[in-house]
Design goal:
The chain is α/β, with parallel strands linked by helices. It is built from eight helices and eleven strands. The chain starts with a helix and ends with a helix.
């Protein structure tokens, strides 16, 4: 007969990171949302790393320090990028792969083209590359005073279900965006595709106090995709958007077309 110790279910290990820095309100809210679902370990940047994409640190030393920021949770701050954090967490903190990697909750949208530039999503994608199921969370509010009530609710619901999946794809990676509205107004979660939407960018030319010229990136967000199955549409209609993403960037349909049209 199996003993109680033998039949006890192994507690899942939950790695949490972000790109806004270890002290950002978003990561604290993500930790709170999944407490009780497993052993939480935090490895996050020591400063904001937004827009870093999938950058890794080469040629500079990486620093890793334990911090006491979250009650009852092991936490480390890293001098590198979000992707560095995932790599170091697996190799030097956990010494194994966690059961799931959660990134966020990002302050600001990571829908549509933003997934390419996002440090939040790059951390999740890095985990996916390493056969670790992952989810990136973003709230459509840049304020440090943002209300994360709805984000916490839906993050917990989704993480619970992903952890419970049987025979789940270890490359599973989800990009989750939460609209900036009261929880009572959110209609639920919707699986979507990534919209073709981007920033129409320009560089504003300015001068510093010494009269030297510099440039400041500005832009206006434009949605070129009128589909009702996109993340942008879902968020505009008060749904939490869930986009399954992958690191394989191969355009398979175009590959087939070119194989027929081009001869070498």
């Amino acid at each position: 007969m199996a003993t109680a110790k033998q039949t006890r279910k192994k507690e899942p290990v939950i790695l949490i990171t972000n790109d806004d820095g270890v002290t950002a309100p978003g990561i604290r809210n993500l930790i709170e949302s999944v407490k009780g679902l497993g052993k939480i370990v935090v490895v996050a940047p020591d400063k904001p790393q937004s827009g870093m994409g999938h950058a890794i640190t080469i040629g500079y030393p990486l620093r890793l320090h334990a911090v006491s920021l979250f009650e009852g949770v092991e936490a480390w701050q890293c001098s590198g990028t979000p992707v560095d954090c995932v790599k170091l967490a697996v190799d030097k903190v956990l010494h194994k792969k966690p059961d799931i990697c959660l990134s966020g909750i990002n302050h600001g949208a990571n829908h549509s083209i933003n997934v390419i530039y996002s440090g939040t999503m790059s951390a999740a994608i890095e985990a996916s590359i390493e056969h670790i199921p992952s989810i990136g969370f973003s709230l459509l509010n840049f304020s440090m005073e943002a209300d994360f009530t709805a984000a916490r609710h839906y993050a917990r619901k989704l993480v619970e279900q992903v952890l419970a999946l049987k025979n789940k794809d270890n490359h599973l990676c989800l990009n989750v965006n939460i609209p900036n509205v009261d929880k009572s107004l959110i209609k639920g979660m919707k699986f979507c595709r990534q919209a073709y939407a981007k920033y129409d960018e320009e560089f504003d030319e300015r001068k510093d106090p010494a009269g030297r010229r510099y440039f400041w990136l500005t832009g206006e967000f434009k949605n070129f995709d009128k589909g009702k199955d996109t993340d942008v549409w879902a968020l505009q209609h008060n749904y939490v958007s869930v986009v399954p993403v992958q690191f394989d960037l191969t355009h398979y349909e175009l590959k087939k077309q070119l194989e027929k049209k081009l001869k070498f």
